[in-house]
Amino acid sequence: MPDTLSGRGRSLVGVRMVEWGVLALLVLGFTWVFGQYAQRVHSQAERASVLTTLGALRTALVIQHLRHEVSGAVPDDAQAASANPFDAVEQYPASYAGLVRGRDVGAVAPGQWVFDAECVCIGYKPMYLDWLDSRENLEALWFQRRGSGGASLLVPLDRYVWHAQLVE
How far apart are CA 156 and CA 144, in angstroms? Predict the structure, then answer.
């Protein structure tokens, strides 16, 4: 009889181990799914932040143009077209890192905006490049300031796709 009880005890321990193993796998699975979901939400929040900043800059450029129209002051087209769009806003965003040369964002921290005076472009270095569905070897999203005789435009230099949504 003692042999039967010890065999039964071992069987019970084995069942408990299987139960704990299944529970651990379920917890790991749910943790992974939650991590993927959280990463997706973070990506969408960053995309919304980028679009908000672009919208604010575009609005500031239009307001700047209208102020010149109303005041009668005619800005130098060449100077206006080469100016930093961030200078049109009242206060630089906290994520504005400053000037770069030759679209080199290697030293810029992810999540930062920059201005390149050579191409008259603003650039944004994403937190994680994996979120972009665009071409390879992409370090930043670049938007060039274009237009004369009217309000300047910020035009993307490439077709940027962020989780199947176009960034314009």
Answer: 6
Q: Is residue 164 within a helix (H) or strand (E), and if so which, with residue range?
A: none
Place of tokens 């005890």: 9
At 137, list the tokens.
């070897």
CA distance 80 to 146: 10
Sheet holding 153-156, edge to edge: 96-100, 112-116, 121-125, 141-146, 153-156
Q: How does 99-130 read in b/e, with b if 16+ C-beta sit within 10 Å?
A: ebeeeebeebeebbbbbbeeebbbbbbbeeee
* Helix segments in the chain, DSSP class H: 2-71, 77-82
Show the tokens assigned to 120: 């008259």
Instruction: For tokens 């307001």, name the residue.
Output: 63
> Do 61 and 154 meet the contact criterion of CB atoms below 8 Å apart?
yes
Q: Render pLDDT for 124-134 as a digit per residue (tens, 0 to 9).
A: 999 988 888 86
pLDDT higher at 120 or 135: 120
Distance CA 81, CA 120 (A): 8
